[in-house]
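Quick one:
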Amino acid sequence: MEFLTGKHLDRRTFVKGMGTSVALPLLDAMVPAGKAWRNPTDDPQFTRFVAVEESMGCAGGSDWGDARNLFAPAGVGRDFEFHADSQLKGLEAYREYLTIVSQTDCRMAEPYRAEEIGGDHDRSTAVFLTQAHPKQTQGSDIFLGTSLDQLHAQRFGRGTALPSLELCTEVIDRGGGCAYNYHCAYTTSLAWASPNQPLPAIREPRAVFERLFGAGDSEADRQSRRRTNASMLDWITGEVSRLRRSLGATDRAAMDEYLTHVREIERRIQLVEQRNLSGEEREMPEAPSGIPDSWEEHMELMFDLQVLALQTDMTRVITFKTGFDQSNRTFPDSGTTKSIHGASHHGNVPTDIMDFNKINTHRLGMMAYFLERMRTTMDGDKSLLDKTAIVWGSPMGDPNLHNHRRCPLIFMGKANGALEGGIHVRAPKGTPMANAFVTLMQGIGHDMHAFGDSTGSLPLSFPKGV
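Output:
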């Protein structure tokens, strides 16, 4: 293969073998020599979109917590600092990539009729990315709206192997029905391809890995490979060797680093499965063998898989639900033994609010792992973090009141220049969260002027020097 003649690898080059299909990251050999060429992923319309939902609001959603800047910093614009007890303290190293949006509301999650009162937990997840009010039903006539991620996938994800990828860390099982006459899809589904088409999320890292790489023509093939402890990459060594001989030294090093990372993730998945099948007592005996007992380990694996999917342009759209409403999971490393749902009902008692804040801080702190991986993974001359819009937030404000006012929201990354970063925008009281979404979507290539209950747009930048 002679690259000086203008021949080059296609951006969507796959190394294939025995049911395995491994996409490659952007390499120099994918740039036509001697021709004017521009990486299409530098264009705003190819901006990656990742949405991460946090259930049950935050301690800063309470009046007491807001006054003490547990979520929203005291300063606005570029002149802000993180309070010592700020939930955002763990993200301080990524300040330049943060667009903090405070005091916006998700009123579509509020009850509209008397019979909807009390169902806030059952509506919240469905509302976050749709900003639409769910139809109260247990039947097949569910109706909501199309979520932001799917709008992006429908317009800019058609050319990718996976138009979108839906992930989660927990499942909810309420014995066949959810509460307050709401269909369970509203509680579990963050992504909605249409008003009546929720998209199920994948919980097991192994299932995500095999979704990305194939790893076998059938389940029997996959089980056979697992029994031999063979790596998926062992199936493509011949093809990799042939490709390496055609690459320059820089590309060989980049490809080797990438494949080493793929192998390491696969090894970690295997270790989780082996540990959970060893017969030793598990912390979560009800969970499948492929689910780490440690929430933190699970999060890191899922984040690493997301980086691989974005790096290879297998997908440009990901949603990640990191828990579910009313979860009784505990986080010992947070500094409190209370469950997240128990701590969320803090009764407006300051010491109890601070316990909830410890859990909030610990959970949001896991985003630092993802941001670092995105910042250190290059796509051409920029990092994935520069080319991605990451939406982190909750459709609930103060969970003690089950309200949806003053909900936490952060945009992370630079979104190919659509997000300035390093600023705090405090919206006027009563501003719909949908206003911020309208501005974001306009910045990443959408002709959007209204969404959900939006009343306009919300500026996400400040004039230089202000």
